[in-house]
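I'll show an entry:

:::
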Amino acid sequence: MKPYFIWAGVFSLAINVLLLAAPLYMLQVFDRVVTSRSHETLLMLTVAALAALAAMAALDAVRGRLLAAAGLALDRRVGPRVLHGILEASRTPNSAPRAGHGTPSLRDVATLRAFLVGPGVIALFDAP
């Protein structure tokens, strides 16, 4: 799981740097465009800011897909082990079969996968 989280951290760093595009755009407009009344400067600043915001949106989408792939990889690694453990536990003679015996274990795997795909991990990456 390490490569998924390293790349998600790299994308989060880039996204957080690109978040500065809007404040920098406003500062440059007030500093350069208002004083010089240059339409060309305003156009170039607007194009650069829009490109930065588009790149931020693309990186956010890639980070979401990357974390979804991490959740799927976790489910593929842990899910069969949990299912095998549930089946082995149900075959032992001293354990009485109960309804929904392995359901909490499988639910825990699904909860962990949902956490990796959801906004919780993204908030952790964006916090610093």
